[in-house]
Structure formats: C-alpha cells, structure tokens
Predict the 3D structure of the following.
Amino acid sequence: MMRRGFIFWSALLLVAFIGIYQLKYQVRELRRDTISLRTEVEEEYRSLHILRAEWAYLTRPERLAQLNERHLKLEKLKPGQLMSEDMLDAVPDRLNAEPAVAETGHGG
C-alpha cells in the first residue's frame, strides 16, 4: 500500500518537474522572441524616422522649384487655365457680396 503511494507521488512529481522544465524552456524562447521583435520594431521606427526626414528634404518647395526650372520648365498656373473667363465672371466676389440669408420655412 505504501509502495503504491510512493510510486504514484514520485510519478506525479516527475511529471510536474518535466512540465516545469518545458514551461521554463518555452518562457525563454518567448523572451528571446520578444527581444527580437522589439529590436525589429525599433529598427523600423528608426527607418521610418529617416524616411520622413528624407521626404521632408526632397519635397522642400525651393528644391522642387529648382528641379522644375532645370528639368520641366513649368509655369505657374493661371486662373484662366482652370476656368474660362465667362465662368470666372459668374463666381461672386466674396469680399463685396452680401451674406445670403437662409430661409428656414418657419413662419415668424
């Protein structure tokens, strides 16, 4: 009777030790993975920061104007290029126009 109890508890203890060992190994692997992922994320943030700085440098208006003069020779857009003179005349002058009063439809 005592022998069966000893064998049962010994087997249970052995299973517990094996489970704890495997758990410890899994935790170590997960910790390594976490450190690796954090490093990758930090590298991505650095790369993103560099790309944003490069984009800001490349899209400076002065630089784009110089490139335009050198390669494209584009001129500034004139209002007549978007609308004809008749259409422009139909647009009300906002500075001199009276504010429009919206009718609510309520008697009052």
